[in-house]
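Minutes, methods subgroup
Present: GH (chair), OT, SY

1. OT presented the first of two proteins processed in the latest run. Sequence and structure tokens recorded below as shown on screen.
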Amino acid sequence: MLRTAALGMFLYGGYSIAIGLIDFIFLEKLEWWANLWMILAGFILSFGAIFTRISFPGGLALAIGGLLGLHAISLHNEIHLHGQLSQNLQLSRLAFAVLLVILGYYGWNPDETIDTKLPDRESEPDVPVSNNN
């Protein structure tokens, strides 16, 4: 589940970056700040996806922030481009984002962040090392 969530987040972030760059450079349908917002939120979501996949603490929260940023700018872009909001499109975006977060939450494995090969600091005796060469 975690791999699916991370892949979905990463692809959604990459898609947003690509669409933002294409519109920023070639199409110019949206304002420059809206495209930069979409690109930045896509980067945040992509990094959040990477951190979510490795079960890094705060990775899922970063991904949620990217998803919220992309949803907020999609509200602006849809009104700007079409003159009205499509309830079905916005609800489908919301359902997709919620699905990704649920998959990431239930697939989270905090044991992956702990390296069991390293000994505990408490188990090592404090023996001074002498430099008598």
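2. SY then presented the second protein from the same run.
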Amino acid sequence: MKNLRTIILSAIISGVLIVPSLPATADAKDEKNHHHVRKEFRKNDRHEKSKGRFHGRREAYRERARHDHRRPAKHHYRHDDRDRRNVRRDNRGHHNKPEIRQDFKDVRAARKDVQESRRELRTDYKELQRDRAELRRDIRNGASKQEIRQGRQEIRNDLKEVSSSRRELQQDQAKLEAARQELKNDLRKR
């Protein structure tokens, strides 16, 4: 009974302390300037005409494009003191070089190989899980020793397939990394 009284009393005291502060927080929110509301989202434009559904869309687009500060300004790129190029900015026409195009093709092909290897590894793992579940069922149901031996042999074969798939995946990942590095080096040469 004493615990119930203290809970009720503490709830009443906390309510009495919180209630007077609510109007103060509401006033603080109302006094904020809502300068982040963009002009094109307001109902009326600068001529105080009400925009309809289609009216003024072009003007709003042009207005937005003219005053959009998120768009980058034209930038004149130059070399730094050590005369190194900014590869991300200066290397505009690198796709036209046959060597670079071939490097991009190599990277794409290596990515596809990695994806296929991962897919194959996933299927090998699923097959291993199925065979293990089948072996457990056989053992639970009292299957013959021959069936159990065959199930264990299937699991050993699945484990070999998983290890070979892992090796292939590692090789494909190494090829992909080498192709990426070659592309990066060729882009830096330019």
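Chair's summary of item 2: The mean pLDDT is 77.
Next meeting: continue with the remaining queue.
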